[in-house]
Every structure is written in C-alpha cells, then in structure tokens.
Amino acid sequence: MLKVFFDELDVVAKSNLSHVAKLRFAHAETVIPMASLLGIRGMASQLPGNTLYDYANNPWRGELVAPMAANIQWDAYRNAQGHMLVKIYYNEKESHFKPACDAAQISPGSFYYDYAGLKNCYLKQLPGLPGLSWLSVPKGK
Question: Rounded to whole angstroms, how far apart are CA atoms 27 and 38?
C-alpha cells in the first residue's frame, strides 16, 4: 500500500493530473498496519519483544487507531518554487509523518513535507522491508 501511495505521487510529480484523486476503501485490518508502517505519531507504540501488551503498559488502542470510517489521506501541493509538498490527514485530522521524517518538513512543526525528502526518508528508514527496493528518489527532485 505504501508503494501505491508513492507511485501515485510520482505520477502527479510529473504533472500528470489524471492521478490527482485516487480513492481506496479498506477495513481496519488494512488501515492499522498502514498507520503503523507510516509511523503516524501515537499509532505505532511498540513494547520490548519480551513484554506482553496490556492496557496498563501501552497507550495504543485499536478503537483510536482505526475507529469506524478510519481513513488516511495524502494531499499534494506545489509551492511557489514548483516543489511538490505533501500533507497527511489521519482520520480527518492534520497529522505528522513519523518523527524520523521531520527533516522533510518545510519548517519545524509544519504539516507540509517536501515530497522528495519524505520519500527519501521512507527509503532510508525502511530498507529491510520486503518489496521496498522500488523506492528511489529521482535526482533533482
């Protein structure tokens, strides 16, 4: 799914506006792993491998991560310099991508991320995941 998001934005980055709206519908079983993979703040709280999850030791709650009609939305924009920016909404609220990608924010705390920097962040942070060899950032983007 992450590959599909980046593939669609790559097409839009090349000014092919036939891809500006792509809608996919899924259940919590798809939204929860995607939110975790994206590292959306508060959606991917991990415990040490030898610790069992319970409500007392972890703030993660399925009903908050994937409530009824949960959704993930990426909006793409072009700034005055022609650079593509991306903004994420999680359950209709402006959200941040994972903290490791903060360097891609156009300014500290901003909800807008430089697309090339964001894509590069996921490329660098997730090299061990199967199927991510497709991620590459074109030079000059």
Answer: 17
Average pLDDT over residues 84-109: 94
Determine the Cα–Cα distance for residues 115 and 99; give it in Å rounded to an integer. 15
Could you tell me the sign of the dihedral formed by the alpha carbons of 50, 54, 58, 62, in that order? Answer: positive
The model's pTM is: 0.78
Q: Which residues contact 13 (CB under 8 A, 6 or more apart)?
A: 76, 84, 115, 141
Q: What is the pLDDT of residue 117?
A: 95
Query: In this structure, how many other beta carbons lie within 10 angstroms of the beta carbon of residue 63?
Result: 9
d(CA 7, CA 1): 10
Please give the torsion angle defined by the CA atoms of residues 15, 102, 120 and 140, in that order, rounded to the nearest 10 degrees.
50
Report the C-alpha gap between 44 and 49 in whole angstroms.
Answer: 14
Asked if 47 and 57 count as a contact pair (C-beta separation under 8 A), the reply is: yes
In this structure, are residues 89 and 111 in contact, taking their beta carbons and an 8 Å threshold? no
Name the phi and psi angles at 134, rounded to 5: -70, -25
Phi (first) and psi of residue 101, to 5 degrees: -100, 10
